[in-house]
Design brief:
With 139 residues, this protein is an alpha+beta fold. The protein is 24% helix and 37% strand. A hairpin with a 4-residue loop joins strand 8 (110-118) and strand 9 (123-132).
């Protein structure tokens, strides 16, 4: 199949547009998920501890730990994943601690976000950038 130079430029331009479109949609998906979790309430920046590695050598198993003293639920999001919702941990009144550890999958270098719903109805958020390397070379 032979393409003219004009057809090649059109195909290349359409491909560039198609690749660029999902990025704002992902940011919107994260904002939508946070708004759905909080009901549109204001979110504070303190009260949640998010422990994640600065550099992850394998994006398939990235260990994280989230905790928020007095939380009834903690939602974890991976902003760069096609589906940003990773997990929601719910804590009952008899929970010994409001802490959760797990391993998550990250599609690439991105922000991991934890939003906690506190017992008093307020919300708190923490976020950390995790750099996913290929082959553990740090680059």
């Amino acid at each position: 199949m032979d393409f003219t130079r004009r057809e090649t430029l059109v195909i290349g331009g359409a491909t560039a547009v198609a690749v660029a479109l999902p990025m704002p949609a992902m940011a919107s998906a994260v904002d939508d998920a946070i708004n759905a979790f909080t009901g549109g309430a204001a979110v504070g920046d303190s009260g949640v501890t998010l422990d994640a590695p600065e550099i992850a050598e394998n994006g398939n198993t990235v260990p994280i730990e989230v905790s928020a003293e007095g939380a009834t639920a903690i939602m974890v999001l991976a902003a760069g994943n096609p589906t940003p919702g990773v997990a929601t941990f719910n804590f009952g009144p008899l929970a010994g601690a409001q802490t959760a550890k797990t391993r998550i999958r990250l599609a690439g270098t991105q922000d991991v976000i934890a939003v906690a719903k506190m017992a008093d109805g307020s919300f708190a958020k923490s976020q950390k950038n995790v750099k996913v390397t290929i082959g553990g070379c740090g680059g």
